[in-house]
Amino acid sequence: MARTRSTKSTAPKKQPADAPPPEPISQYTLESRQGPPQHVFILPKAATSEARVVTLPHPRSGRPSRYLFCPKSGIYEFTKFSAPKHAPKSWLIEPRPGSDENVLDGEKGPPRTEVISNGAMYVATRIDPLFLVLPALVDVKIDKKSDEKKRLFLCSDDHFDKLPQQDSHFSDMLRCDAIRTLIESRMEVICDTVDAGDEKMFRLSEKKLLTTIIEKAKQMGEGGLPPSMEEKFVTKALEAPVLLSRNVAMPSQPQSKAEDAADSGHSTPGKESSTSLTTPVTESDSSLESHASTAATSFVDEADGVDIASAALQASPDVIALQRLRVAFDFLCSRYIPSAAAELLRTQLTQVEESSVDFAPLEKYMASLAERRAEAVAASSVANYSSKRPRDEEQDELRQEKKRKLEEEKKRKANQSRGVRDLKKVNTSGMMKLSHFFKAK
């Protein structure tokens, strides 16, 4: 019988501990999409199927920007909302049941779902057409100090020709009679007009423009600004610090001295001298006032000291309304109006005869608020100075010298060789030094 040679079974190789885990097998495979990346848009219900995305010059910067143009409902701008970069998001899109988008080419099958890796969202909101034509109406070359009316009455087409024509669909948009009528009607709000035959001529009126922007700012602030703007530019800007003062009562005269004074026939009233410590706190920290007597760091007993909080400034409703109006006005100027015209409008806003809005109560409150904040800063600096021992120049020089020596010692040790460092670890107790053998006998 032939003998066979048996071989040992080889054990499976062990994977290293730091090897990455195997990738899980997905049940569904996503097909790669060809073409430009998709985006999510939220369009108004008033927009019809004839609406198109067009490119128009931005009223503030003049750069080409995207807008939604609908021949029936008007013009809309896009506002982008995106997730922060440290928390990327994506969209999972599925059509509504029963919609035409759910069936592809008349075939029945699973719903048509899509995944959009870009988590941004674009919301279409209505924009006033007068902002789009305002750069053509404003002549930035005119001196702002000149009272002469150098602007000329021009027809609407002459004004439209001043707008940038490169990468712009403005001329194509004007072919729609409804949009042309809408734009010219909005131009009449901010322009002086004259009739030249069958054609109407326009010239920008700075007073009408200022009145229109103020009305828009009032409408924006009537129901309150957005929470982020309200908190940062209204609430925080008008919030006043609260000065918390502590009056420490000194002990009165001893009873024996009072009796001696009574025997001599002269009555001396007990005088109490007090020292005041002022600490600035904000209105949100005013609740700490009731707990000041029980604080662990209190040096004065409740019977000996009294906390007095000076009355904080409170903005009246009129002051708050004026602040909202100013914030909304600045927002409109910084977003929709050219820089030269925006600067002129801000200057005219402070003039009562031009804007018909008196900002004197707001200016008075802001001046008082600046004084109160300066007092709070001064009180805070005094409190910090009294809590720390002042250092003189000699102490600073000693500290610098000590620091320099430590750095030199550290540098010298770093330059030593390894052999020298190892010799320092040898126990040399009981050994004679090398200089002992070279002494004179």
Automatic annotation (TrEMBL):
This is Ribonuclease H2 subunit B. Residues 389-411 have a biased composition (Basic and acidic residues). Residues 42-128 form the Rnh202 triple barrel domain. Residues 265-293 have a biased composition (Polar residues). The keyword Nucleus applies. Residues 1-39, 89-110, 250-293, 380-427 are annotated as: Disordered. One of its GO terms (cellular component) is ribonuclease H2 complex. It is found in: Nucleus. Non catalytic subunit of RNase H2, an endonuclease that specifically degrades the RNA of RNA:DNA hybrids. Participates in DNA replication, possibly by mediating the removal of lagging-strand Okazaki fragment RNA primers during DNA replication. Mediates the excision of single ribonucleotides from DNA:RNA duplexes. InterPro entries: RNase_H2_suB, RNase_H2_suB_wHTH, Rnh202_N. Keywords: Nucleus. It comes from the Eukaryota. Residues 131-345 form the Ribonuclease H2 subunit B wHTH domain. Its main location: nucleus. GO terms for biological process: RNA catabolic process.
